[in-house]
Design a protein that fits this description.
single chain, 336 residues
Length: 336
């Protein structure tokens, strides 16, 4: 093996979690990770939270010694925690903000937008280190925070990185407000803590291949993908019946004049390589052709909407034709 290849065992394990007003989700997650069939214990733990979440975490986990209690319990179980589970330093708690102020909540579109850029920035600094292995927890905080964390991991995650979620029994948790993690077998059975690994699509390699660099912001990365990725659309089937002169979309027949049908036929067949005519010339420079095609596009848009209409009948200057669910009926008997 090349010396430049880093083995999985040499990765610095890092747990990055979103948290809100219930920091116990962090201790529950660490406990669950440590009690897997193959224990996963992070070297360092980092949280992304609000200013309110920061104070809650400091109070419960640091001032009230909740973190020490967790580490001691795991050590008592003879789990390998020495020189691991670093948490509590200034670089362990990242408070979401927009550069002017820290947010005490994520409740507006502007705050969600700023939070996405903030999370991407935090994750980026860790995923740029080749010897790290990231476990991202989406169990805490508002739903928007969890959704953004998963999206950021999809954009930045590498092959060694993972995403997890943890659940506990609602009835038990609601009746044990001071619960941090199971401290005995009875509590473990009652709390029913379950850890789930969330599969996610890693598109980082695609982005770097297209742009040659990582994004400046979340919105910039999303914008680029919208540009380079195929449109996420479901095409209704289009049938072009040359014998009857009828164009139908998803079973709906369009009311086209004979001229409009002929123009639609020539245009679609000239661009659809699977049905391109052999002896026909598309005179797209002709003004009458352009005007007729514009009328067809408007009638198509009335049935399938503007987005799909411009996909079926795109601008004449567009060279790439992407509509695929087209059937041409020419009335001739099929030959084997």
């Amino acid at each position: 093996m090349s010396e430049s290849v880093i083995s999985k065992e040499s990765f610095d394990r890092l747990l990055v979690a979103v948290t809100g007003n219930s920091p116990a989700i962090l201790t529950e997650t660490v406990w669950a990770l440590a009690h897997q069939e193959e224990p996963w214990i992070p070297d360092k733990v980092v949280i992304i939270t609000t200013s309110t979440g920061r104070e809650k975490a400091k109070e419960l986990l640091i001032e009230q010694k909740g973190w020490v209690l967790l580490c001691t319990a795991l050590l008592t179980e003879k789990l390998s925690v020495e020189d691991k589970l670093a948490f509590g330093s200034s670089d362990s708690i990242h408070v979401i903000g927009d550069g002017r102020r820290d947010f005490d909540d994520i409740s507006t579109p502007a705050e969600s937008s700023a939070a996405s850029d903030f999370m991407l920035s935090v994750l980026r600094q860790y995923t740029e280190q080749p010897d790290t292995e990231i476990m991202a927890s989406i169990a805490g905080g508002r739903k928007a925070m969890s959704a953004l964390m998963l999206a950021c991991m999809s954009l930045l995650g590498r092959e060694q990185d993972r995403v997890c979620h943890v659940l506990a029994d609602d009835f038990f948790i609601s009746n044990h407000r001071d619960f941090l993690f199971p401290q005995n077998a009875q509590e473990a059975k009652a709390a029913r803590i379950q850890l789930y690994e969330i599969p996610f699509v890693r598109v980082r390699g695609w982005y770097e291949q297209e742009s040659g660099k990582l994004p400046a912001s979340y919105s910039h990365m999303v914008s680029l993908f919208r540009t380079i990725a195929p449109e996420a659309v479901v095409e209704p089937p289009v049938v072009l019946d040359l014998k009857t002169g009828v164009l139908s979309i998803g079973g709906t027949e369009l009311e086209l004049t004979r001229t409009e049908f002929d123009v639609a036929q020539v245009f679609i067949q000239s661009r659809n390589t699977a049905s391109a005519p052999e002896d026909r010339t598309v005179k797209e420079h002709d003004d009458n052709f352009r005007r007729a095609l514009s009328r067809v596009r408007k009638k198509v848009a009335a049935v399938m909407g503007k987005t799909l209409a411009t996909r079926l009948i795109p601008d004449l200057r567009k060279t790439k034709y992407e509509y695929r669910t087209i059937q041409i009926k020419d009335g001739r008997p099929k030959t084997s």
